[in-house]
User: Fold Redox-sensing transcriptional repressor Rex from Streptomyces zagrosensis.
Amino acid sequence: MATGRTHRPATRSRGIPEATVARLPLYLRALTALSERSVPTVSSEELAAAAGVNSAKLRKDFSYLGSYGTRGVGYDVEYLVYQISRELGLTQDWPVVIVGIGNLGAALANYGGFASRGFRVAALIDADPSMAGKPVAGIAVQHTDELEKIISDNGVSIGVIATPAGAAQQVCERLVAAGVTSILNFAPTVLTVPDGVDVRKVDLSIELQILAFHEQRKAGEEAAQDAAQADATAPAPPPIRANRGSSDGGAGRSSAGADATASAGSRAASAGTRAPSGSTRAASGAAARDNKGPDGDVPAVMPA
Assistant:
């Protein structure tokens, strides 16, 4: 089997977009699961659902590989596994060094998925002298003083950095100077590399922060929905009535007073009509005396 030094994947020379390259491992994982279940063919819709993409995008991605499937049948699973593996460079052996054998580095060294996908852990390297010679995942840890020699002897072109953030840039520079051209960075920092060196960053805390953002947004949406639902099901409020003890009461009393005044005026007017005043009665008496007859008791003119 060839090593990583003798061959580089041809994805860039064939003009495959980076977004498509990033999705190829997703397709390969889904196809590998189908292959293990002895599924011979798969439709674009089924494979797209398993990979978490839409079927139109999947068909477009596969067209870059020259694979178009068969109408009414779908894609041949084993052939697609081979096509994608070849395009990703997984049909050969890729020796990898892991620098920084703390908890994370040790966990990576023990991960069995590397070997099954064509990545052989060639060496484990750490700056702590007390770690030198200790076996981790069946491999003896070596000191960073030997980094350049290890890379040269094993033909390493892929390095994994699992050091603290403060040491990551220096380790990166040493890896690049020794000939490493691809780096997987687990350190929580941004690395500066020259042209021609590819860096992939994995920051678990950032991924968790993104998930926390989505959880907070979902919680806010649920709270808003619950509030809207509660408003929709709540009984209608009673109509607003006048407060008798406040200004409306004063207005009521004023109205009552006005009514009483008007009523008194009406009674006075009525009384004036019914009972003439003293002057009126005197005038009436004088007129009556003037109208007496010769006898003084009987009017000169009798009513008809």
Confidence is low (pLDDT under 50) at residues 1-13, 246-252, 268-273, 275-304. DSSP finds eleven helices and nine strands in the chain. The first strand starts at residue 41 and ends at 42. The CA atoms of residues 13 and 174 lie 28 Å apart.
